[in-house]
Predict the 3D structure of the following.
Amino acid sequence: MVIYCEVARAVEDATAKIVRAILQVGPSNYSLISRLTGVPPETVRYKIKEQLGRKGISLHALVDTSKLGLRRHIVQMRFTDKFKPYARTILQALHDLAYLTYYSGQLLTNEYYTIFNVPEEYQKEFHEMIDEMATLEIIEKYKIRPVFWTNYVSLRPEYFDFRAGTFDVDLKNLELIERPPEPVYESRSEKIKIDYYDVTIITALQKNALSTVAEIAREAKFHEKTAQYHYTQHVMGERLISRYVVNWIGDIESIRSNFVIYQRYICLLYTSPSPRDLSTSRMPSSA
């Protein structure tokens, strides 16, 4: 039993080291992760490709949308009673045609929280489109908030038991984060040139952050050396992928045996509204 426990702890330590390395360098370079952690490359590959997902661990590639010429907006919109039954259909159409990338509904209301990534040259048309939705009485209230920076806190490996797939937190000895992750500021100082290869690689990584360059090249029918060049020089060199985030989303068994609630917290800092703020708001600040 003692031998088993020592081996189990060693396995947990190895997995935690790999997760920490992923936060630094991403998940695709197994050799580099091996050098950083001392874990054999084949073990690294197995844990990343096979084991983490079974434990409910997901990896996400965070794209710096500002470097792609996009500006992010959070839009809270409340559908009228007439159009509430068609809200999801409308939002799906906005996703297909008008740069909507995320939405979620509020419980017991007609209100939706949405995120749009809009090309900088279409900012005016975007505001006009949302305003027209209100004019046509599709939505009754809305508020547009530009996003100036984003921040994400990853799972902290020291508080997760990777063998059991559960959190193990000693609240009495909980350590505060000394320095939060550096925010990703969404304002460009210079234009970044991107091409079809870059966009294809970024898209693949957003769909599956565990995709390797070789896998992306095969799927897209690129020459692997071409894909590797664009990944190294543009995607990573220009920090089009700002960093990777590791999250726990719950494995199947945990979700079946526990009641899991996903929550979103929004913190807003209010300043005196500019004329533009006033013109793009049809929702009270208290809403």
